[in-house]
Amino acid sequence: MTEREQRYIQDPLFWRAGAIAATIFRSMVLAAITIDTLRQITPGSPRVPAYDVINNSIAYQYDPARAEYAPKIGGEELIFDAFPALGNMSQDLFWWWWLVHLWVEATWEVLIGCIMACGP
After folding, report:
1. Side-chain half-sphere CA neighbours of 24 within 13 A
2. The whole model's pTM is what?
């Protein structure tokens, strides 16, 4: 390696410029990929059905014309009925409070306790 090449490698400005250029290039590629992905996952596009299929049965059936499995949208099902409508907001919030405090917080406290127990 020549002395001139060593100066470039040892120069912090060289590495800083390389890091900035790589970051800008990667950001541009990620932005392009994100825009393309958003275009393809928009509801109502050929790949994503419209929102009117929520709470409908969705199954996969073999399509011989395409030689692959394709989604088949069936009749109405109560898929997203995790919190039934009680008709009373205070009862709904009461059960929501118990769900959050007894399930979610307890789960994370146990997980954090396990992580802390396995500490250094």
Report:
1. 6
2. 0.41
Contact call for residues 73 and 58 (beta carbons, < 8 A): yes
Structure tokens at 70: 């394709």
Long-range contacts at 89-92 (CB < 8 A, ≥ 24 apart):
none
CB 69 within 8 A of CB 77: no
CA 38 centroid distance within chain: 13
- Binning the chain into helix, strand and coil, the percentages to the nearest 5 are 60, 15, 30
- Residue-wise pLDDT tens digits, 61-110: 899 998 999 888 888 776 555 555 556 667 777 777 887 877 777 778 77
Give dist(CA 49, CA 110) in Å, integer.
39
Phi first, then psi: give them for residue 68, nearest 5 degrees: -160, 165
